[in-house]
Write a structure and sequence with these properties.
Elements: E1 4-16, E2 26-43, E3 47-52, E4 57-63, H1 77-88, H2 90-95, E5 101-108, H3 118-133, H4 148-164, H5 170-177, E6 180-184, E7 189-192, E8 200-204, H6 211-219, H7 223-245, H8 249-266, H9 271-282, E9 287-291, E10 298-302, H10 308-317, E11 321-323, E12 333-334
Parallel strand pairs: 3-5
Antiparallel strand pairs: 1-2, 1-12, 2-5, 2-6, 3-4, 6-7, 8-10, 8-11, 9-10
Helix pairs in contact: 1-3, 1-4, 3-4, 3-5, 4-5, 7-8, 9-10
This protein binds (R)-mevalonate.
(R)-mevalonate (MEV) binds at residues 14, 18-19, 21-22, 167-168, 170, 211, 215, 292-293.
């Protein structure tokens, strides 16, 4: 049996459909080429160990029998619960695979502040690594469970929901499958959209946002109004899908602008994001909007080649930081 493996998973950017996707509507998300890496090692002592310097977790240790118990540092939660959930999965439990320990070290190519989904990417890495380490023993290898990606998605989604309580799972799906996805809540639909380019510019607001806080903030509003907004966001996503597939950037940009208006009506945009978005629109972008939960994190703009520099300059002048990324990156993989 292999003792150690390194895997990586991409970060993500929501293109359209945030918030509404938590409540049964579709969204479109793309994987970015900045990746989370995890090295997972099987050890003899039944101890869980984690080093995740990006989130200030150093030499964190506890007995495997206590996984998920007691006070868990914020930066350790996703990895620890992912390990626990992997070993509690019926097909894994049946095999009584490993009585020793697991040591994990994570390292990210992107800051956890950006809202690129570092928690879900590290969760996906750990589940993928454990499946790879045990793959010769597992029932799925013997034909009982053939869809490895689906198994990874399910365990990672359960992990994120165990910790956050809320979420659509779009970030988990794109970390697993990569590319650009049309996704419906909980993975009811996960459809790969075959595109080879997307002229996207990303601006970081400098403000860290918390997804669950933003979701709860929207829950305090009149739910009839919110429901109508979600329905309209869902309609925009349905129109955006063919626009994206046919590279009709002008139509896609208009849909992004409309989505931004709806997100403003939901109350999740903030002045800094509004300023950066307006600057991008004024500099000639096809469209611009916030990306993710709102309240901070990043905005995105879709721009013609000859306007790219002007849009970047506009975002910077509005106080944002342009982040160079490529979209449509590969899903989780062994390094
Ligand atoms: C956060 O990046 C996007 C939300 O739609 C939450 C989710 O889909 O899990 C607000």
């Amino acid at each position: 049996m292999k003792k150690s493996i390194t895997v990586s998973a991409p970060g993500k950017l929501m293109l359209l459909g945030e918030h509404a996707v938590v409540y049964g509507r579709p969204c479109i998300v793309t994987a970015v080429n900045q990746r989370m890496k995890a090295t997972v090692e099987l050890t003899d002592e039944p101890v869980f160990e984690l080093n995740a310097p990006d989130v200030q977790v150093l030499d964190y240790k506890k007995p495997m029998s206590e996984l998920g118990q007691g006070d868990i540092p914020k930066g350790a939660k996703f990895v620890e619960i992912a390990v626990k959930n992997f070993f509690s999965t019926p097909e894994v439990k049946k095999m009584r695979l490993h009585l020793g320990g697991v040591a994990v070290a994570t390292a990210s190519e992107f800051s956890s502040k950006f809202g690129f989904g570092s928690s879900s990417a590290s969760t996906v890495c750990v589940v993928k690594a454990l499946f790879e380490l045990f793959k010769d023993d597992l029932a799925y290898k013997q034909g009982l469970r053939v869809d490895l990606k689906k198994s990874i998605f399910e365990i990672a989604l359960k992990t994120v929901l165990d910790i956050q309580g809320k979420g659509s799972g779009f970030d988990v799906a794109v970390a697993v499958y990569g590319g650009t996805l049309y996704f419906v809540t909980g993975g009811k639909v996960i459809e790969l959209l075959h595109i080879d380019s997307l002229p996207l510019i990303v601006g970081y607001s400098g403000i860290k946002a918390d997804t669950v806080t933003l979701i709860n903030q929207v829950l305090e509003k009149d739910q009839d109004v919110v429901g109508d907004i979600y329905t309209n966001i869902g309609k925009l996503v349905e129109q955006a899908k063919p626009a994206l597939l046919s590279k009709d950037w002008s139509s896609l940009g208009k849909l992004m602008n409309e989505d931004q208006k709806l997100l403003e009506n939901l109350g999740v945009s903030i002045k800094k994001l509004d300023d950066m978005i307006l600057a991008a629109q004024n500099a000639g972008a096809y469209g611009a909007k916030l990306s993710g939960a709102g309240g901070g994190d990043c905005m995105i703009a879709l721009a013609p080649d000859d306007k790219t520099q002007a849009v970047k300059d506009g975002i910077t002048a509005a106080g944002g930081q342009v982040i160079e990324i490529e979209t449509n990156a590969e899903g989780v993989k062994a390094e």
